[in-house]
Amino acid sequence: RSGFTAWGVELARQVGLTLIGRCKGKRFVALSGEERIIFDADLRYVEEESAKHWRKNSREASDAAE
Predict the structure, then answer these.
(1) Which terminus of the chain, N or C, has less C-beta within 10 A?
(2) Residue numbers of the domain that contains 14
(3) Which of 25, 28, 22, 21 lies closest to 50, judged by CA?
(4) What is the number of structural domains in the chain?
(5) How far apart are CA 60 and CA 43, in angstroms?
């Protein structure tokens, strides 16, 4: 299993690293260094992730099932 730990996030904050976790499609989670991210991508040209990549309990999967 991959992911981030509380210790990893704290270490990134202490040394001034930008830490991104769970990046998929147009979304990501910034865990450290959010102020250094430049949001300059034109999201109209970023494809949505396909349904086969959705997590079973994700909001997208729940919405699609309804």
Answers:
(1) N
(2) 6-65
(3) 25
(4) 1
(5) 18
